[in-house]
Amino acid sequence: MRLFPGDTTPGGMALDHFRLVLLSVARARFGPTARQRWVVGVCPCTAPSLELDVWSGGECLELLGAGLLHLTVLEAGGVDARD
Fold it and tell me: What is the pTM of this model?
């Protein structure tokens, strides 16, 4: 999890950074030419919610599910994300 300071980072920028990090991990594991796709998912704790699919060995693997946490989830965990 990465928290950006205050509300200075637009959600789109945070999501772009998030996707770049996860794609880097997938490429390191499956190689730079592995076919990948993002799927918009639904999760009660995150919005937007994403899934990353990667094709490997002729199969499509749902590699992960992730997203940007709702502030209420962080607050329930004792994190003041507004600082």
Answer: 0.65
